[in-house]
Amino acid sequence: MSENLLISLNKSQKSAAEHIDGPLLILAGAGSGKTKTITTRLAYLISIGIDPKSILTLTFTNKAANEMRDRAFSLLDTNSLNTPPLLCTFHKFGLLFLKFYIGELDRKNNFIIIDSDDKRRVLKSINKEIPTALLGSEVSKYKNSIMTPSEVKAQAQGKLYSEIADIYQKYEEHLFKNNLVDFDDLLLLPYKILKNNQKLAELTSQKYQYIMVDEYQDTNELQYRLLRLLCSTHNNLCVVGDDDQSIYGWRGASIKNILNFNEHFKDAIIVKLEENYRSTDTILQHANALIEHNRDRLGKKLVGTKDKGNSIKVYESHDENDETRKIVDDIKSLINSGKNPKDIAILFRVNALSRSLEEGFNKASLSYKLVGGMKFYERTEIKDLIAYFRILTNLSDNFSIKRVINKPKRGIGQTTIDKLEESAQNQGIGIFELIQKATPEELSAIVGKKNARTIKVFEASILDLRELMAESKMRLLDSFEEAFDYRASYDNLPDGFERQANIDEFYGYIRDFFIQNPHLDLKDFLNEIALENQSDEYSGDAVSMMSIHASKGLEFKYIFIIGLEEGFFPIIGDGTDLEEERRLGYVAFTRAMDDLTLSFVHSRFYKGKRTQLNKSRFLIESGLVKGSLVIEKSSGFKKGDMVNHKIFGQGRVEKAVNAGKDYKLTINFGGQKRDILSSFVEKN
């Protein structure tokens, strides 16, 4: 039976599936059949008599775990399996482990897992001033860096990070006292238990004699260390992954885990899966040409198994509207020729670029869906701005006033808003009219002295902007930012870059509207976008729009990639990891099965203003357009990297710039920022 399992595999896949003992890295290129290989290996191990109970397979998503389970079991006689092998996510394994062994930490096994909303509520109950998104992100980073609150406190410099360290301590005390476990604890607590109990670590390792890990390039430091403990009595670890598809460095994934696999696990064997069953040979040639510009990679070259296929199209457009028209025309032609919309996808590096696409599709009555994202005008930061601008055109808009009177946060809670609304209703007037009519003393009687002062400043800012708007529409946005610092309120937040990009796109669109329609005003603009936003909800199959991150693991017959300009793709500056940007390009190219179209424009909204842009270096590096290559030495450091300095301790890189043979790093050591040469620090 075991030989029959291997019949459908190619030579490399068969070599990987037949490997039994010792560490194995299956370096699986895009579309090379990695899931088929790892599930066949699982079935093969069972077919030669290895006890299913001794096999542990770890994935990152429940979807991947379920797919692997179904495919592996379809190859086996499941009736003869007394106990199926454990195949689950890292976090599910952690949960099962804690059910048995959390007592090692003096805790009961009736613990409750809290979700991200619960976590935010707990953090907010400890501190209402610091944004909960920032607190949640920092706490998660500390846990995945295996740092205790006391370690964080010892390294914290500066008021903010010292305060966050205290909040982390109180948060951990709250979890312990109430026997709660957060998502990160599902990995951290099992690691602590195994680290502190060598005998239990050995018993657990002996129980799981064969361990397999999917998407190994996405593992972080904590997952790697946990795996080391699970392999403490053996080295039978098989990991599958692709260093060229490591695109989650920003959320803690460490590419060094896969790059250094043969150093971490002695006598490791590497099997490369390079035969691609997804894309045409033409697409693969250009994807290979692009990724070969990366230095930090193990090296492999995808070989096509399909026909050469059509040439890759490259669209050069004046601006985003011109770009959208071309793509809409192409997609209309595809659909009119009988192609299914679900086989078509548009990818972008920055979510803000969906705006012009959405408008173009709505005007053309084309059905679309945003995968893993939200429609542009439904994004919180855009709805907030629209609410602000509605107030500027209509002071009686109570709904909008209630939405933004505390955005950015200025200490106006829901109770205060309710009091304002109740008082306004009692007087039969709007909330803003109440604020205008009331003296500071009268307003203080309603909402308290401190809130009254804050609300009066809000009122003055709105009235000043209305006056300015009557004089100069073009100065409105700069003055709005000066008054409210709305864009700046997203500084340092985990998703701040994306939200600020959306804000910039919206500001740019307003400016363009006024330039093209000098006789129209803000109210006309708001009416225009309200009409655009009232798109019909189409039923049936739809074209997919998504970020490149969201596209990983998917495939489509027809792929369009937009925004191939320097600054948008790749994102450049501020310590960006250019190699990870290039891996994103490789991922995007290899989503396409039959046809690939790339698009760049000469002009797009950049940081709130229409800007002349240069075409992406990726178009040149992939051999699709002529041009001089942009040579840029890789610093090996990127924004967000954790580093150690022998004097200043642990810090996070905020910026990396060239400084002769070395690199100057701006590092945040617990709130204290220092410029340090890269040769004086070590990466964590």
TrEMBL record:
Biological process terms from the Gene Ontology for this record are: recombinational repair
**Which reaction equations make up its catalytic activity?**
Couples ATP hydrolysis with the unwinding of duplex DNA by translocating in the 3'-5' direction; ATP + H2O = ADP + phosphate + H(+)
Q: Which GO terms describe its cellular component?
A: cytosol; DNA helicase complex
Zinc as UniProt keyword = no
Q: Which residue numbers delimit the UvrD-like helicase ATP-binding domain?
A: 7-280
Mind telling me which InterPro entries this protein's record contains? DExx_box_DNA_helicase_dom_sf, DNA_helicase_UvrD-like_C, DNA_helicase_UvrD/REP, P-loop_NTPase, UvrD-like_ATP-bd
User: What range(s) does the UvrD-like helicase C-terminal domain occupy?
Assistant: 281-553
Give the E.C. number(s). 5.6.2.4
Q: Which family does it belong to?
A: Belongs to the helicase family. UvrD subfamily.
Q: What is this protein called?
A: DNA 3'-5' helicase
Please give the organism. Answer: Aliarcobacter trophiarum LMG 25534
